Amino acid sequence: MRLQKYIAEAQIASRRKAEEMILAGRVSVNGKIITELGTKVESDSDVVRVDDKEIHICEKLVYIMLNKPEGCVTTVKDQFNRKSVMDYVSDVKERIYPVGRLDYDTSGLLIMTNDGELTYRLTHPKHNVVKTYIAHVDRKPDERDMEKFRKGIVIDGRKTAEAEIKIIKEGKLTELEIKIREGRNRQVRKMCAAINCNVVKLKRIATGKLELGELEKGKYRYLDEKEILYLKSL
């Protein structure tokens, strides 16, 4: 198998991060530093090391859905010692990591796993996995605003892909359902700001057809076989 896939399945990092490690010269195979991404390895005979530490493929793959609360970071470690999503799955024996990210102030569905291949598939832009959010904003957008949103908006110097938006509820705050196919930094908040709507509260409720449902905030559950197969089919 490809070296980056081997590293991912050894629970060291996602496949994308594994590629960065290889290019940075941090990986060796049978004592030789490898910097080419296409390198093939045999799991039963080759000795693979990352930062001079021998690694091995883990046999048991774990798939978890966490309802991430606001006020925690979606990283394995944080340089400022802030609360992390890892604190909510501390009793899981396997070494898992989050698939993609949710902002510090955003709550909702977060998949966590040690399946590097699935992580790669779900986070790579070419796969266009739909993420559904509920956003509470301080202003009701008109139809012109929403049409602009749907066609894609330039944020950070680059236009977003086409998106979906509709009004769910009106009141002091307007509740919107938003669907995007990318995972850019603070994308929903920035797109809403571009149509003069400030996001007060944001929650991800679905990844593809996998829904958060009634899972309590700060709690997690293991995905069932049907859900795992669905994610792998995306």
Uncertain residue segments: none
Rg: 20 Å
Give me the count of strands: 15
How helical, in percent, are the residues? 10-25%
Structural class: alpha+beta
Separate helix tally? 6
Q: Alpha-carbon distance between the termini?
A: 22 Å
Strand content: 25-35%
Keywords:
four-stranded antiparallel sheet; 234 residues; 21% helix; alpha+beta; 6 helices
What's the SSE blueprint?
Blueprint lengths: L2 H7 L5 H9 L3 E3 L2 E2 L14 E3 L2 E3 L7 E6 L28 E2 L7 E8 L2 H8 L7 E7 L5 H9 L2 E2 L2 E2 L4 E6 L4 E7 L6 H8 L4 E9 L2 E2 L8 E3 L2 H9 L1
Parallel strand pairs: 7-13
Antiparallel strand pairs: 1-2, 1-3, 3-4, 5-7, 5-15, 6-7, 8-12, 8-13, 9-10, 11-12, 13-14
